[in-house]
Design goal:
Layout: H1 2-27, E1 33-34, H2 41-55, E2 59-61, H3 62-69, H4 73-88, E3 93-98, E4 101-106, H5 112-119, H6 125-136, H7 141-148, H8 152-166, E5 172-174, E6 177-179, H9 182-196, H10 199-206, H11 209-222, H12 228-247, H13 267-280, H14 289-301, H15 310-319, H16 324-340, H17 348-367, E7 372-373, H18 378-385, H19 390-406, H20 411-436, E8 440-445, H21 450-463, E9 470-474, E10 483-486, E11 499-502, H22 512-532
Parallel strand pairs: 1-7, 8-9, 8-10, 10-11
Antiparallel strand pairs: 2-4, 3-4, 5-6
Helix pairs in contact: 1-19, 2-4, 9-12, 13-14, 14-17, 16-17, 16-19, 17-20, 19-20
Length: about 525
């Protein structure tokens, strides 16, 4: 009977898991611009190999690589040679081939972006084209061909490939010029430098006296607390802004996507405009309200301000009601969360933290298009596919659809932004769910003397899933539990709802896979009951 029950249980769990995985695959569709798409095809393969080694904790078999990357042995051998040679230049990582396995050995501290930038990106033809456009505003085909030492046909191919990537940002290289909304052009370059270059490289290039002076004046004028990272973000943005304004002096930038109505709803924007006009007049820049709006949207939505600061909190909370689109997104999110967590009142500190994060994310999604990352989304997707709570996933997808219904997204925008938005909502909801501290109350009822029972308890704890929160205690008759673990078939008439798991034998590990599956189901059941509680 026990075995039959187990098989039925496993069959039911398998069906549920298949349905859940299908649901996840539908929700996690969507793509962001992968920074390594700026590389040549062979270099992209090398980065994918490096990514695979990180994913597999530094060791993967040659046969696994051949299958996962869909390459032949000759291609893999060549890619390995060049990846090894590139890593030799940075010293902290080394690739070794050992008994049919590829090993990534760490010798010191280094971030993936350092590998990507120092070994690949800065030498990329497409990256050089983008830098040239930022510095000069446009390019003469013949002059650029000679400067990059490439053929005219190669330049045409690279521009076409760039346009495929830039489409996500609503940008295009046309007639030797980068075209599109001005806010999007600056946002694209900001993402390129922030995510594509090492922190120290950005710090070295963009930290200057004029930038620091401007930020000090901004903080003094508006009592803003800016984070350390926020200062660097501002400095990168200011550098991009100045280059773009110099390049567009003789042209008319596209400001058509800006929420110009905000100037009628917030005094802060008028004050900010006065300050910025006065400051940038010394650079002879033709500052206008459009430029102030671009600056304001960047500041609000790119996490530059210290949200632990009370003045910043008051400012951001007040600003979230000024913009109609952002305010509607905030209200819709709040209504869905209140419905989902109707049984629970969160501490004010948590509510405030969530409100600020949500507001900044919504401002970002409302006014900027496109996302950039080094490796793509596979690592984060893998983490999200491990989430077992179906209701949690459904709520995330509901929030995504609500956002798409409010913001003016095209079908392509939705496809590109879906996963990023889903992942951000999932992170926010995870913060809320952690506050619930849902724990399984597990008691062990074992026929051993105290010392032996404690030893068995430690063995059980070593084998239990670390993804489930629980309290494992010795069984006491007068207390209530969710689960009772025992090695004897017996009844517990005083328990109102406890489920019993009987070990086939405490001497072997045979039961633990079944126990972990059993605990998962009990945890989800308890979570669902809690979510449905009114």
């Amino acid at each position: 009977t026990r075995r039959s029950s187990d098989l039925c249980h496993r069959s039911s769990f398998s069906r549920m898991r298949r349905k859940l995985l299908l649901l996840k695959s539908e929700m996690l569709e969507g793509v962001d611009l992968e920074l390594f798409s700026l590389l040549e095809k062979n270099e992209q393969r090398q980065i994918k190999l490096f990514q695979l080694l990180l994913e597999e904790k530094g060791e993967v078999s040659v046969n696994n690589v051949l299958t996962r990357l869909s390459v032949d042995r000759a291609t893999l051998k060549e890619d390995l040679f060049y990846l090894q040679a590139n890593l030799e230049n940075i010293k902290q990582l080394e690739i070794v081939i050992q008994e049919g396995n590829i090993l990534l050995i760490r010798h010191g501290n280094i971030a993936a972006v350092d590998v990507y930038y120092h070994c690949y990106l800065r030498y990329s033809t497409k990256y050089q084209i983008l830098l040239y456009l930022l510095e000069n505003g446009s390019f003469d085909r013949q002059k650029l061909v000679m400067e990059l030492n490439i053929s005219s046909a190669t330049l045409s191919r690279r521009v076409k490939e760039l346009n495929d990537s830039l489409n996500e940002f609503h940008l295009k290289i046309k007639s030797g010029r980068l075209t599109g909304p001005e806010s999007q052009i600056r946002y694209f370059y900001f993402q390129l430098f922030w995510f594509g270059r090492p922190y120290l490289e950005n710090k070295k290039e963009y930290s200057d006296l004029s930038g620091n002076t401007f930020l000090d004046l901004l903080q003094k004028e508006f009592s803003f607390a800016i984070t350390e990272e926020g200062r660097l973000k501002f400095e990168i943005w200011l550098s991009i802004m100045k280059k773009r304004m110099r390049c567009t002096k003789k042209s008319k930038p596209d400001y058509s996507n800006l929420p110009v109505g905000l100037f009628q709803t917030t005094q802060f924007l008028l004050d900010l405009h006065t300050f910025l006009t006065r400051y940038f007049f010394q650079y002879a820049f033709p500052w206008n309200q459009n430029e102030t709006l671009v600056f304001y949207l960047f500041m609000i939505s790119n996490f530059t301000l210290d949200t632990h600061n009370s003045h910043v909190q008051e400012f951001l909370i007040s600003e979230k009601y000024k913009d109609d689109v952002v305010a509607q997104l905030n209200r819709t999110f709040k209504q869905s969360i209140e419905e989902y967590f109707s049984f629970y009142v969160f501490p004010e500190e948590i509510s405030q933290k969530i409100a600020l994060t949500v507001m900044q994310n919504h401002a970002h999604f409302a006014y900027f298009r496109g996302w950039m990352n080094i490796f793509g989304q596979e690592g984060l997707k893998q983490r999200l596919t491990e989430v077992e709570d179906k209701q949690f996933l459904v709520l995330c997808e509901r929030l995504v659809r609500q956002t798409f219904a409010i913001v003016d997204f095209t079908e392509v925008d939705e496809e590109n932004a879906r996963f990023e938005l889903f992942a951000r909502y999932a992170s926010i909801l995870r913060t809320l769910i952690k506050q619930l501290e849902l724990r399984l109350q597990i008691a062990y009822d074992l026929p051993y003397e105290r010392l032996m029972a404690d030893i068995v308890k430690e063995i059980i704890q070593e084998q239990l899933l670390n993804t489930i929160k629980y309290d494992l205690v010795e069984y006491e008759k007068e207390k209530q539990y969710d689960i009772i673990l025992t090695s004897q078939l017996k009844e517990y008439p005083s328990q109102k709802s406890a489920k019993v798991f009987v070990f086939t034998s405490n001497e072997y590990n045979y039961d633990f896979p079944y126990l972990n599956q059993f605990l998962k189901e009990c945890y989800l059941e308890k979570l669902n009951l809690r979510m449905n509680k009114t």
